[in-house]
Amino acid sequence: MDLTSSHATATMTHRTPIATSAANRDRFRFDLLAEDKRTWARRGRLHTVRGVVETPAFMPVGTQATVKTLHPDEVRSTGAQIILANAYHLMLRPGADLIRDAGGLHRFMGWDGPILTDSGGFQVFSLAATNKVTEEGVTFTSHIDGSRWTMTPESVIDLQLTFGSDIMMQLDHVLGLPAERSAITDATERSSRWLERAIRALDQVQPGESSAVLFGIQQGGMEPDLRREHAQRLARMDVVGCAVGGLSVGEPKPVMAAMLEDTTPYLPREKPRYLMGVGSPEDLWHGVARGIDMFDCVLPTRAARNAALFTDDGRVQISNASWRQAHRPIDEHCDCRACTQFTAAYLHHLFRTREVLGLRLASEHNLRFLARVMQRIRDATVDGSFAEAGDAFLDRYQAARGQESVSMPNRSVLAAADRAVR
């Protein structure tokens, strides 16, 4: 499997960064290598002690220390360079002590590349039966056994250090939307205060040889001015990367695009930007066009387990009867094992008979599809064809029903935003 475009990657290796930032005595570094002239698309590189991540990048989600149905070697074979695990789920089961005793999360799950751990803030507010937010933190009921737990900005840092995470996320106050503006303002400001506490906690407890770094999270609901203000505040904070939270939570696609346009111009150019919870192919193009470097989402593997496979024409439902006699690959241009060793008819058979192999091959295919999309995005950003490549992809790809279309960002709007920032 050709995991990357070797010629393009080799060429970029020797390119002088146009902006850079580093932390932990250069054990973590982000190099910005190229910027598209017509959009906000960027090409960069994350350097960690466990490997290099070419950006823009999609991170497969291994919520409970596994990317569902796949062996770590299979995840790596798709082209994945970094994965995400979730602090909330791992705290509840199997527990931080067990992971520490196993030698850390990497050894426990058999993944030797970088790992980003989400703080669990979203899960607390979406899964916990009851939760109570105070300035100290959040107390909640486990969705597993009803036990009571408390997470604070400091305890979440301790938890992720115990895991041995490469990139840690702050605890933020995630608010269900729609909500009153006053509630959104309150949650956004609390997220900033919690980040300040997380930074202090990391400074006090981080072991001298630790390579872990901290990303802050920008919030602001669907309020453009709050998004801008919080992005500016986050830009002044002592974090190595900036995440955009609270999007892809059911809002129309044009609203998400608008919120990104009200956010990324105010985030530091030299630091990586991470859009949380986004992973549909079309949204990757739109996110990169608006300045995003990193993405994660359960969508590709969850869709795969439900027989939905990505192709250049959109998602196909392989369990439908129309695939029964399809003695050809799902995607003739894909180099994953599902496409190079098996036919669509065979995958249809696996799903109709509920064979586990179908889930595995479909998951591998969807992750490989996204890795190929990200490579296409990286190459197009470098050679100056990003806007054309994006338009060509989006013109062909049929998004899921009910999704409003989004256009590539308007150059005059981007220029005006850039002038406003300066």
Write the layout of secondary structure elements.
Elements: H1 6-13, E1 19-23, E2 28-35, E3 42-48, E4 51-55, E5 57-60, H2 72-77, E6 83-86, H3 87-92, H4 96-101, H5 105-109, E7 115-118, H6 121-127, E8 131-133, E9 138-141, E10 148-151, H7 153-163, E11 167-169, H8 181-205, E12 213-218, H9 224-235, E13 241-244, H10 253-261, E14 273-275, H11 281-289, E15 294-297, H12 299-305, E16 308-311, E17 314-317, H13 337-340, H14 344-352, H15 356-383, H16 386-396, H17 411-421
SS-based class: alpha/beta
Count the E strands: 17
CATH class: Alpha Beta
Count every helix, treating DSSP H or I runs of 4 or more residues as helices: 17
How would a textbook summarize the main sheet?
Answer: 8 strands, parallel
Distance between the termini: 44 Å
Average per-residue pLDDT, rounded, comes to 93
What is the assembly state of the chains in this entry? single chain
CATH topology: TIM Barrel
Shape: globular
Largest sheet strand order: 5-15-14-13-12-11-7-6
CATH homologous superfamily placement = Queuine tRNA-ribosyltransferase-like
Low-confidence stretches: none
Please state the CA-atom Rg, rounded to the nearest Å: 21 Å
- Second-tier CATH architecture: Alpha-Beta Barrel
- Helicity range: 40-55%
- How many structural domains in the coordinates? 1
Beta-strand level of the residues, as a percent range?
15-25%
